[in-house]
């Protein structure tokens, strides 16, 4: 199960960072069913498997922080037996999963007011937390229009558009990332999910930086939504961008030139108006 989860995370079959963190935590339950002679043997296996899970997606801060907590749950004090070490890990997994899921849910609830009745909102990429906020707004009887970028090169924005097509009261338009300057003047707000915020840098799907810069130029407020576990101080976690296969940009061979395909970009937090998390709202 752990090896399968590592491969699943690496291939972005589960791309939501909250979902990734939960899947990775749950995968470590496999260790609870294995036989270990000593606590040291159990701890080494936990560290090795946790490291493999973290390396599968080094850009995800929530994956890093939750896996660190799980390993520390066994390390933090003297553990007298393998059984005690397993009990500590099991309790830590339960705690981490509950916190990630509740943080995501509360962030969505806190962000529902961003979607006012009759508003036009632009979103980028695919964020289950942003979609949850939209569902919460719809449950309160609001109707609004949503512009969605494709989020190239993996086109995860198309998944957002297909999801929104099933929401009552939402009019949806999908367009290429480069067309944001055409549609932004008609928008009341930009609402985005997040991979993470580290210090004064907001990391999200590539294309977020030009979108936020254009929104700032046009005086369209930008709101970011996500669990507070994704907002961390500098130090400890080091964001690592991922570079995807060139075939995702163009299928035919590149002859005489190279193809760049970064998965994320970094946006200065000064280009944001607010960040909405499970703990409340931070304004910039």
Question: What is the helical fraction, as a range of percent?
Answer: 40-55%
Rg = 20 Å
What would you call the structural class? alpha/beta
Question: Main beta sheet, described?
Answer: 7 strands, mixed
Which fold name fills CATH's third level, the topology of the largest domain? Answer: Rossmann fold
Please state how the strands of the largest beta sheet are arranged side by side: 3-2-1-4-7-10-11
Name of the CATH superfamily of the largest domain: Translation initiation factor eif-2b, domain 2
Unreliable runs, pLDDT <50, ≥5 residues? none
* CATH architectural arrangement of the largest domain: 3-Layer(aba) Sandwich
Q: What is the count of structural domains?
A: 2
CATH class of the largest domain: Alpha Beta
Count every beta strand, where a strand is a DSSP E run of 2 or more residues. 11
| Total DSSP helices | 9
Strand content: 15-25%
Characterize the overall form.
Answer: globular
- State the distance separating the first and last CA atoms: 42 Å
Q: Give the mean pLDDT.
A: 93
From N to C, what is the helix and strand string? HHHHHEHEHEHEEEHEEEEE
3D architecture notes:
Helix content is 42%, strand content 17%. It is α/β, with parallel strands linked by helices and 284 residues long. The protein folds into 2 domains: 2-106, Four Helix Bundle (Hemerythrin (Met), subunit A), CATH 1.20.120; 112-283, Rossmann fold (3-Layer(aba) Sandwich). The strands form 2 sheets. Strands 3-2-1-4-7-10-11 form a 7-stranded mixed sheet. The protein has a 4-stranded mixed sheet with strand order 8-5-6-9, covered by helices on one side. Strand 1, helix 6 (128-139) and strand 2 (144-149) form a beta-alpha-beta unit. It is globular, with a radius of gyration of 20 Å.
């Amino acid at each position: 199960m752990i090896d399968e989860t590592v491969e699943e995370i690496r291939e972005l079959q589960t791309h939501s960072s909250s979902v990734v963190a939960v899947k990775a935590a749950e995968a470590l339950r496999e260790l609870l069913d294995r036989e270990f002679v000593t606590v040291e043997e159990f701890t080494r296996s936990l560290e090795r498997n946790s490291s493999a899970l973290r390396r599968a997606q080094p850009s995800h801060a929530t994956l890093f922080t939750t896996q660190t907590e799980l390993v520390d749950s066994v390390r933090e004090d003297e553990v007298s037996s393998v059984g005690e070490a397993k009990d500590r890990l099991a309790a830590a997994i339960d705690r981490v999963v509950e916190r990630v899921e509740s943080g995501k849910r509360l962030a969505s609830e806190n962000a529902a007011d961003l979607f006012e009745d009759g508003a036009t909102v632009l979103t980028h990429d695919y964020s289950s937390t942003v979609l949850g906020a939209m569902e919460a707004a719809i449950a309160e009887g609001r109707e609004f229009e949503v512009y969605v970028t494709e989020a190239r090169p993996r086109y995860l924005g198309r998944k957002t558009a297909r999801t929104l097509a099933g929401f009552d009261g939402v009019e949806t338009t999908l367009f290429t990332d480069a067309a944001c300057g055409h549609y932004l003047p008609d928008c009341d707000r930009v609402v985005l999910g997040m991979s993470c915020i580290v210090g004064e840098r907001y990391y999200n799907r590539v294309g977020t930086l030009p979108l936020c810069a254009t929104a700032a130029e046009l005086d369209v407020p930008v709101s970011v939504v996500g669990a507070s576990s994704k907002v961390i101080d500098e130090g400890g976690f080091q964001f690592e961008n991922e570079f995807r296969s060139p075939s995702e940009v163009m299928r035919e061979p590149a002859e005489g030139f190279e193809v760049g395909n970064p998965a994320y970009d970094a946006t200065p937090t000064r280009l944001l108006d607010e960040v909405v998390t499970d703990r409340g709202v931070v304004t910039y």
